[in-house]
Amino acid sequence: MQSQLVEQLRPSVVLMDINMPEMNGVEATRQIKLRYPERIVIGLSVNANAENQQSMKEAGAVQLIPKEAALELLYDAVQDAVNGREI
Hints:
This protein has 87 residues and is α/β, with parallel strands linked by helices. It has four helices and three strands, in the order H-E-H-E-H-E-H. It has helices at residues 2-9, 25-35, 50-59, 70-82; strands spanning 13-17, 40-45, 63-66. The chain has a three-stranded parallel sheet with strand order 1-2-3, with helices on both faces.
């Protein structure tokens, strides 16, 4: 489903929640990056522990942001990713 939305909407940046009902965000990120490697994926989670950080990076996300910090960090994370700066 997520890959279909990326195909249909063609976003430059995808914001991905790790916890989703049918497929977790790590696997969805992996599938999106396989089909659309130029897309930028930034993860969001209430549980942004080291294990989830590593899983999302391995799947192709540029960063995993804790949801409680999203307001402060999300704009900068998107700008840095789009501009090709290391996060």
